[in-house]
Predict the 3D structure of the following.
Amino acid sequence: MKVSEPDRERAAWPGAEADAIPGQLVLPGMPAGPEPDGGQPTLPGLDWPPGPEAAHDAELAAAAAELRALDPDGARMAAAIRGALDMLLDGQHTGRYRWDQLHKTEKTHAGTLVEIALARALQLADGTTLDYTIAGADVDCKFSHRTGGWMIPPEAEGKLLLLVQASDEDGTWSAGLLRAVEAHLRPVGNRDGKRALNDRGRAAVRWLHGRAPLAENALIRLPRRDVAAIFACASGQQRVNELFRRAQRMRVSRTVVATVAMQDDYMKRVRDGGGARGQLRAEGIVIFGDYAGDQALAAGLGLSRPGPGEFVSARLARCREPAPPRCGGRSVRLDGADWVLAAPAAPAEPAPSLPR
């Protein structure tokens, strides 16, 4: 196996990892981005200056320090949130993949699933009266699909809140801490006495992670017509085949495969020996997995590296020029030949087998 170009020169194919977008919105309290003047705009309505109580809240500062120590880069929180959303959608049994496909009662249950998932991922102790004990303080966990949608119960007033927000549509998640003081809450609550944050409260959140990437849901990123074509197939195997035809060069998670297959043995639908890998090879399509060799080959072609439990499919074309650079793209060596990503108009030819 030979990779023709170094990993660091990966091309930005659709679905590949991307750098931060210049001018990207930031959340109040987050550090400024790469702009030298730090002049990135905050979210509309969230630019109220934090009150002095936030700057001198020792319990809040201690809880923030403990959470950062438990999960410095947010990877554990991100995985927990992704898992909770996937559990709620239950795509393997329902075929659902979007938040708006959930019933109202299920959306209400999302907060409980996120709360439990975070407690397990971070090994947080139970609180005395609220959800967690963090750095010796009671902390209530609140989840919302949209920023600012948290509802604060009467028993959490005056207490610390861990506010979590995640959206598959945006592909991001955020988490921060706030003290639920009167100045941060709207004066009128709902029938249960729960109150929303006001502008000052939303601006006073001390963000631990803001707009961090949420593991991609390929079915959200695909055009609706492609998703409809996938689910129109009669069998689980046909749906998985169509998924890898239409989601080429994108990360596809096991959860997405399970959602499309809607079968207990969904991983069998990907493998060689009757699965998508074997059936799509005649069309020139290969499916890279999370094996180290597959990751190196995918990177060598300029594709995203499949992470744990992920796949990336792509159609390949044999390079018939004397030297790979003359093929017009990056190449990898397989079965004694050099292969490049196929252009859309290139005729289909059988793809090589990936080394195992």
User: Anything to note?
Assistant: The two ends are 11 Å apart (CA to CA). Confidence is low (pLDDT under 50) at residues 2-52.
